[in-house]
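[09:14] KT: can someone run the structure on this one? pasting the chain below
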Amino acid sequence: MTAEILVNVTPRESRAAFLENGVLQEIYIERANRRGITGNIYKGRVSRVLPGMQAAFIDVGLERTAFLHVSDIARREDVGAVFETPAADDIRAAVTEGDELLVQVLKDPLGTKGARLTTFITLPSRFLVYMPQGRGVGVSARIEDEAERTRLRTALETFSAGNPGGYIIRTVAEGIDPEALRADMLFLRRLWEVVSEAGFRAPAGALVHEDLPLDVRMLRDLLGRGVERVQVDAPIAHGRMLEFARTFMPDSLEKIELYRGNRPILDLYGVEDEIQKSLDRKVALKSGGYIIIDQTEAMTTIDVNTGAFVGHRNLEDTIFRTNLEAAVAIARQLRLRNLGGIIIIDFIDMTDEDHRRQVLQALEKSLSTDHARTQISSVSPLGLVEMTRKRTRESLEHLLCQPCPTCEGRRYVKTAETVVYEIFRETLRQSRQFEVQGLMVLAHQDVIELLLDDESAALGELEVLVGKPIRLQTEALYAEDQYDVVLL
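[09:31] RB: done, structure tokens below
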């Protein structure tokens, strides 16, 4: 597998595309007025304690107060001990109103919800994640070779012996020289000293430490995932990325290129078209089948359909092949759209148990390269798969779109016929309630045309019934389900 990163930078927005074998897998967007805050560290003040929810609201200077659950609070058992989760699940034993504490953002504000916080601070670098309140050394589960896991863990345990805090060795550390681990460890310890000192001096509501900008963050988080080339179209961002690489990953300097082509960089490999397609509900499969993706506040539902695919052997084989293709497409769409939380997949019902197992394996394999943590349940007798995907930032749809002002996010509008009958009822109500010389109906062009054509006889009957003339007027700015009955 070959991978490539494309970075597009404009004055108010940065976008980065992660491609595998020339196919867009993930898109990252960061805007100046809506920059993600996951990973940022703040000095917060407890504004309210909620015993019934075992949580507290924390003022960190954002538009909405942030949320801190008791399970995300660390405490010091005694002087010199490591931080641990409170033994008692009582928020009142952990914090009180007015307390000031250093907190880190786990999840960006989503919809009407404030940011999710933790006091278990983590500081990532190129190869390591440092946990000042933790202990021991962990290794990424994606490093599968047991000998390599042992080598890395032993090296870092030797370097960190006698020093406070814990470490997680990241996937990109596979195969690196132990001295690179040591350099990262020293950098993170120094960074924590700076952050903790700044947190001690900062007033409540202040930003203490901010994560890297998107272009540099792509290098830190993704450059080790088989990436052969990074192209960026802005000289300033290119210089910033080179400086970061020169300090932390000198072996990767030659991979970072300044894109000078006339064609926009995200037009390469059809990335712009893929972004637009990722906002559609319907995703076509090559076989002729399709999937429907509906994102709601509670969960995301995905429905699989055979569509125009009729197969060649029998119905069970057709269904099996459609579900297999859909499993791969679904995994990609989850990454591309950044869908998280609870996800329900309605595969087409399969009677063969072996087919169900193979479809589930195909889904798991396709999700194995996903950077976000996923958990998948078995296929139910109805063909439903329940899964979760860690959500830390807004989905692509929520970032790029807003609810339709016409249907108010319902995904449907009333038909012209329904609106006509509502107009009839409203006209009768108005004529019986008020003394009028006549009435005027203001409506969308499609509604007016229906009144003049298919419903003209009914309109004539209505005029006889109310005993007053009814005039019609088209309003170009009205939505199809919007109308007014005006008294004359």
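[09:33] KT: thanks! The radius of gyration is 29 Å.
[09:34] RB: yep, looked fine to me
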